[in-house]
């Protein structure tokens, strides 16, 4: 189900609503910075893909990382949009085998948007950095 805020107000506000909802469900401190353009006109497939990646990454940090803080930011530039998520959890082996499909789904969504994803993780936490090139008309 697609969040109504995504349709009505765009990715920046939709992520703000997601973060606010998750703050109420957990004791983890979740910080959010939105620097998208006020009248951003991202294609809906890009907005949905970014939203789903953020949702998966934040939920993974809440469920698996034992993090106390999660930082989320979305930044829009003229030619790209960047999503950055960092937690201070225990980290994981990014080369390991996992039963869930979360990481694979994030990578595949990013690939479908012609974006780049960088995931790094160690005992100090996990960082997910995504850059999506905006399609110019």
Structure description:
29% of the residues are buried. Strand 4 (115-122) and strand 5 form a beta hairpin. This protein has helices spanning 4-9, 11-25, 44-64, 102-112; strands at residues 29-35, 69-76, 80-87, 115-122, 125-133. The two termini are 29 Å apart. The protein has four helices and five strands; from the N terminus they run ααβαββαββ. It has a five-stranded mixed beta sheet with strand order 1-2-3-5-4, with helices on one face. It is globular. It has a single domain (4-133), classed as Heat Shock Protein 90 (2-Layer Sandwich). The model has no long low-confidence stretch (mean pLDDT 90). By secondary structure, the chain is an alpha+beta fold.
Quick summary of this structure?
By secondary structure, this protein is of the alpha+beta class. The protein has helices at residues 4-9, 11-25, 44-64, 102-112; strands spanning 29-35, 69-76, 80-87, 115-122, 125-133.
List keywords for this structure.
39% helix, 29% strand, alpha+beta, 137 residues, Heat Shock Protein 90, 5-stranded mixed β-sheet
